[in-house]
Amino acid sequence: MTARTAPTSPRLKRLALGFAAAALLAGQGCASVSRETTGSVERPGAGQVAALPATQLDGALRSYGEAYEKNPKDKGGGMAFAAVLQMAGRNDQSLAVMQQVAIANPKDRDVLSAYGKALAAAGNLPKALETIRRAQTPDRPDWRLLSAEGAILDQMGQSDQARTLYRKALDLQPNEPTVLSNLGMSYVLTNDLASAEQYLRQAADTPGVDTRVRQNLALVVGLQGRFEEAKQIATAALPPQQAEANAAYLQKMLAQQNTWSMLKDKEKRG
């Protein structure tokens, strides 16, 4: 049986589900209200989220937290603070913030989208799906919401439905790297690593793509036993500090699958 059709191991599925959850953040930023490219707000240091130093994250939490306390009903400030909280792993607090923003802005599509993502990050997938679908409008479908809905369905084990939504999103926004990345990670869930690599490479070839896309590609390449190539992908064209952080991140992810040492041994034997 080939890797394309092999059943997904429980460890690989847990790892891929973690990435599916992270993929929800691809359309949500946390710095300031901005033009809608990959979301309604931009991240600080776009493309450098994984390598954001703890001191910068702490500063962002203080800054956005103070702004939120002054005006908890403000859409931009609340969404920004919630996204930074998610980056810090404080998903329950992020959800609480988004609940307040959603109460103040009950019909805002951006807010409902971010609220749905916060619900998913906190593990409430049914309500997240309901919220994302409520934000969508059939006469003006939003590719970001289609992609977010797909990521939730992937976490719920409905990968076929998820991929249909990703392709609908790509019809609306051709070659969008965040959608291609989500589609690629969807194939990781079913252990089709060759298809996953195909879509992730397409996403990674996009100029200015988020560094997380390269990390996902590196992970998939590493899971196929090409350790040195995976490390090169994870660290290519990055400043030394960020390259080191990405390499450490890759090692951590592969260690969860218990493959890091096996890959190194395999390369030595090869």
From TrEMBL:
Keywords: Signal, TPR repeat. SMART domains: TPR. The keyword Nucleus does not apply. The keyword Cell membrane does not apply. Residues 1-31 form the signal peptide. InterPro entries: TPR-like_helical_dom_sf, TPR_rpt, UCP035836. TPR repeats lie at residues 143-176. PANTHER family: BLL7664 PROTEIN, CELL DIVISION CYCLE 16,23,27. This is Tetratricopeptide repeat protein. It comes from Jiella pacifica. The lineage of its organism: Bacteria, Pseudomonadati, Pseudomonadota, Alphaproteobacteria, Hyphomicrobiales.
